[in-house]
């Protein structure tokens, strides 16, 4: 009997893991939240760019974060990943897995990040496999002073296979289409087998084919046990498997709840301050102008 796509994906994930996924999932009800914000405020040059009274994301939970440009979505993610810090409070404003002193390294071991801006940072021709191996060092490519082991190369190849671009391993990254390159970056985020994948506006600049494969990758990873944190402007990016939607506007949480409750024409129009209409079919949502 030939293996199904699902069993193939699962076996690929197993090659990246050091311990079975089931052992961590079985304890999920006893675990502290992945992320908790309480009175978390970020200011730059005297201006408040994010002010979160309370937010909590459980371990194993997926979420989509929506909002207009400049609303504070990127700052929200950087607060999660500890790339920026909030104003000091007597009671810690940010907890990561119950720890208010988690380091950037602690968080990077749990979260992988894919963003459209990362693709713009690739300015030289490098082999795809080297781009993926760079995820082990937090770089786009392998630093000259670092050595990539055969085991690391195998993990990189497995990650590429997982998102359907294993045949591109020896190609130069600059020779790929935008959609192919975006999937290479997803593989880069997967090389250390993170629990959570952050997709920061993952379909920006892609054609419909590229969008399809990036969204498919999100669905495949979700079914393989990964949590997804999706940041986007577009409901079309929200895969059916993501049920919770967080809306950010003017540096504050505007709304938070299920897709059925929050992805409505009225709420989206209020979020973006223009008349919009939501269309829904088979678990997918799309956004069009109301006029």
How does this structure look, described?
The chain has helices spanning 5-16, 21-25, 73-80, 104-108, 116-120, 128-133, 150-162, 178-190, 208-223, 259-262, 265-272; strands at residues 35-44, 47-57, 63-66, 94-96, 111-115, 196-200, 227-232, 244-249, 252-258, 276-281, 284-289. With 291 residues, the chain is α/β, with parallel strands linked by helices. The strands form three sheets. It has a six-stranded mixed beta sheet, sandwiched between helices. The chain has a three-stranded antiparallel beta sheet with strand order 2-1-4. Strands 10-11 form a two-stranded antiparallel sheet. Helix 1 runs antiparallel to helix 7. It is globular and about 50 Å long. The termini are far apart. The model is unreliable at 18-28 (pLDDT under 50).
What is the gist of this entry?
It contains 11 helices and 11 strands. The chain is α/β, with parallel strands linked by helices. Helix 9 links the parallel strand 6 and strand 7.
